[in-house]
Design goal:
Largest sheet: 5 strands, parallel
Helix content: 55-70%
Strand content: under 5%
Structural class: mainly alpha
CATH superfamily of the largest domain: Tetratricopeptide repeat domain
Radius of gyration: 30 Å
Number of strands: 5
Distance between the termini: 103 Å
Number of domains: 3
Strand order of the largest sheet: 2-1-3-4-5
CATH class of the largest domain: Mainly Alpha
Number of helices: 27
Shape: elongated
CATH topology of the largest domain: Serine Threonine Protein Phosphatase 5, Tetratricopeptide repeat
Oligomer: single chain
Length: about 550
C-alpha cells in the first residue's frame, strides 16, 4: 500500500527541528507544522542540543530563532552546521527572527539560510513558504544528492538533463552548473556558463562567478574591473568584496585589498573570517592599529563561533605588544595591559591546548621588555628558556616568536643562531623563510621598521636619480636603525661601488663596502639576498686587487 497522505502532502515525509529558547513558541510552531501534515518534529531550546541532534539524526528542515539568549545565536548554529557538514545540501534552514537590523541580516546571510521568517508567524505564511521550498527541494534532490557524494560529473550531467525540463529552476541550475565546473577545474565551461547567463540578464552571482574564473585564469585586471563594477551596482554583495580583496592581493596591491575589506566590514561587521583576513592583511601592511582592532573584533566574534582559535588571541597579544613597545605614555601602558589581559584570557580559555602557556609567556616577556620592565622580562625568559633552547623541537610560529623576544632582550647572537637553524630546517617552505628573513633584517619594533623602510625607498629614489651622495647618506641613516638589514647593506655597497667607478682607487669607499659585507657574513644561504651578497663580494675583491 502507498501512503496517500505522504504522496499528497510532502510535509509528512520530512524530519523537522525547531530551535527556540521560548517553550510556547516551540509548541506553537509544532502545532502549525502538524496542521500542515508534518509528523517527525523535534523541539530544542539551545545551540548545543540542536548541534547534538543534527550530529546523530538526519534533519530535512530546521526552523531556528536568531536570538537564543546566552551563548550561541542562530547565526552561530548555521555556521556550525555548515562547517561540520551536519546538514545535507537538500536540507532547509529557515532563520526565524523578530530582529531585522542590518547587522543581523548581513551576518546571518553570510552563511546563506534558505529563507527568513519574521515573527509573529501564522500557519498560512509558514505553509506557503515551506511548500515552495519543499517543492524545490524535492525536484532538485537528485542533483544535491550527487553533490553531497562529491560526484560532481554526475551532478553536472543531471543539471544539463533537467535544464530543458525544469525552466522554473533555470537560475538555480545554471548557478550550480557554473559552480560545479569551477570546482572541477573546467574553467572554460564555467566561464561559458556564466557568460550565457549574463548574455540574457545581468545577475550578480553570474558576474561574481565570471570574475572568479578570470582570477583563476590569472586575468587579474579584468577580474578586478568586473568586481569593482559589481560592488558599485550591489554594495551589499559581500562575496564580491572578498573576491576583490583577493584580486588586489594577486596583483600585489595589499593596501587596496585592505581598503576593500575595511569597506566590506562597514556593511557587515559580524563576519569573523573577514575580520581575521583584515587583521592579517593590515598586519602585513604594518598598519598595526587597524590590525589590532580587527584582531580584537575577531576574538569577540569567536566567543561562540566554531572558528574560535587561540591563534586569534595570540595575534592580538602580539599586535598590542608591538603597539606598546617603547611607548611609555599612558596610551602605551594601556596597550601593554590589554596585551597581558588577552594573553591570560587565552591561557584560561585554551588551557588544554599543548604549548599555549609557553607561547603566552614568550609574548608577555616582550610586553614587559617593551615597557622598560627588564627585570620582569628577564625573569620570564629564564623560566621558559629550558623549554625553548632545543631549537629542533620548535614549530615555526613558536621559533619566530622566540627569536623576536631574544632580539628585544638583547640576545642577538642567540636569536640569529636560532633563525639560521630554522632557515635550514624550513628551507623548502618559502612563507616561513620570508618571515625568517624579515626578522633577521629588521629585528626592531614596528615604528623603527617603518622608518627604516621609508629611508630605504628614499635611498633607492636618490640612487635612480643619480644623486649618489644623497643615497649614501640615506642608506647610512637607515642602517643606524637596522644595521644587519641585508638589502640595505647591499644597496649601500652598490652606491659606494658606483661612486668608486666615478673616482677609481678610493680606498675609503672600498673599505666601507667591506664593512657592510662583513656584517652579512652569517647570512643563511636560503636568504633571498644571498646570491647578490656573493656577487658583490666577488666584485669587491676584484676592485681591491
Amino acid at each position: 500500500m502507498t501512503d496517500t497522505k505522504a504522496d499528497v502532502n510532502p510535509f509528512g515525509r520530512l524530519n523537522y527541528l525547531v530551535i527556540d529558547d521560548f517553550e510556547n513558541f516551540r509548541l506553537s510552531i509544532r502545532q502549525m507544522l502538524r496542521s500542515c501534515g508534518a509528523d517527525s518534529i523535534e523541539l530544542v531550546s539551545n545551540a548545543s542540543q540542536a548541534i547534538q541532534h543534527c550530529t546523530y539524526n538526519h534533519v530535512d528542515v530546521v526552523l531556528c530563532d536568531f536570538n537564543l539568549g546566552e551563548g550561541k545565536n542562530g547565526q552561530h548554529i548555521l555556521e556550525d552546521l555548515r562547517y561540520k557538514k551536519l546538514l545535507k545540501r537538500s536540507s532547509l534552514f529557515l532563520m526565524v527572527t523578530a530582529e531585522t537590523s542590518k547587522e543581523m541580516v548581513m551576518g546571518a546571510r553570510e552563511y546563506q539560510p534558505d529563507a527568513y521568517l519574521t515573527k509573529p508567524i501564522n500557519r498560512a505564511v509558514l505553509e506557503k513558504r515551506l511548500s515552495a521550498l519543499i517543492s524545490q527541494r524535492n525536484t532538485l534532490m537528485p542533483i544535491n544528492r550527487e553533490i553531497d557524494r562529491e560526484n560532481y560529473p554526475e551532478a553536472i550531467s543531471l543539471c544539463l538533463q533537467m535544464l530543458p525540463r525544469q525552466p522554473r529552476y533555470k537560475t538555480w541550475l545554471m548557478k550550480t552548473l557554473g559552480d560545479l565546473y569551477f570546482q572541477l577545474g573546467d574553467l572554460a565551461h564555467a566561464l561559458k556558463t556564466f557568460d550565457d547567463v549574463l548574455a540574457q540578464r545581468e545577475l550578480s552571482w553570474a558576474r561574481l562567478g565570471r570574475c572568479k574564473v578570470l582570477l583563476a585564469n590569472r586575468s587579474f585586471d579584468q577580474a578586478v574591473d568586473g568586481l569593482r563594477e559589481l560592488i558599485a551596482n550591489h554594495p551589499d554583495y559581500m562575496e564580491a568584496y572578498d573576491l576583490l580583496a583577493e584580486g588586489f592581493e594577486r596583483q600585489g596591491r595589499p593596501t587596496q585589498a585592505q581598503q576593500v575589506l575595511e569597506k566590506a566590514i562597514e556593511h557587515s561587521p559580524n563576519a569573523l573570517l573577514r575580520q581575521k583576513h583584515l587583521a592579517q592583511l593590515a598586519g602585513s601592511n604594518q598598519d598595526l592599529e587597524t590590525s589590532s582592532e580587527a584582531w580584537q573584533r575577531t576574538v569577540e566574534l569567536g566567543t561562540h563561533s566554531i572558528h574560535d582559535n587561540s591563534e586569534h588571541y595570540l595575534a592580538l597579544g602580539q599586535a598590542l605588544s608591538d603597539l606598546s613597545e617603547g611607548n611609555l605614555e599612558e596610551e602605551g601602558k594601556e596597550k601593554a595591559r590589554e596585551a597581558l589581559t588577552v594573553l591570560k584570557k587565552m591561557e584560561k580559555r585554551f588551557e588544554a591546548e599543548e604549548g599555549i602557556s609557553l607561547r603566552s609567556q614568550i609574548v608577555q616577556c616582550r610586553v614587559y621588555a617593551g615597557q622598560g620592565q627588564d627585570k620582569e622580562a628577564t625573569k620570564i625568559l629564564e623560566r621558559i628558556r629550558p623549554e625553548l633552547d632545543n631549537a629542533a623541537a620548535l614549530d615555526a610560529p613558536t621559533g619566530l616568536d622566540y627569536a623576536k623576544t631574544l632580539f628585544r632582550l638583547g640576545h642577538e647572537s642567540d636569536a640569529k643562531a636560532l633563525l639560521r637553524e630554522m632557515s635550514e630546517r624550513f628551507s623548502n617552505e618559502p612563507d616561513i623563510l620570508q618571515k625568517i628573513e624579515s626578522l633577521l633584517d629588521e629585528p626592531v619594533g614596528f615604528r623603527q621598521k617603518i622608518k627604516a623602510r621609508t629611508l630605504n625607498r628614499d635611498g633607492i629614489k636618490a640612487f635612480e636619480a643619480g644623486n649618489l651622495q644623497e643615497a649614501v647618506e640615506i642608506f647610512s641613516k637607515a642602517l643606524e636603525i637596522v644595521p644587519d638589514h641585508a638589502a640595505l647593506n647591499l644597496n649601500l655597497v652598490q652606491v659606494l661601488m658606483k661612486e668608486n667607478d666615478n673616482s677609481p682607487g678610493n680606498a675609503e669607499l672600498l673599505k666601507r663596502c667591506q664593512t657592510c659585507l662583513d656584517r652579512l657574513a652569517g647570512l643563511p644561504e636560503q636568504h633571498r639576498q644571498h646570491r647578490r651578497y656573493i656577487a658583490l663580494q666577488r666584485k669587491l675583491k676584484g676592485l681591491m686587487v
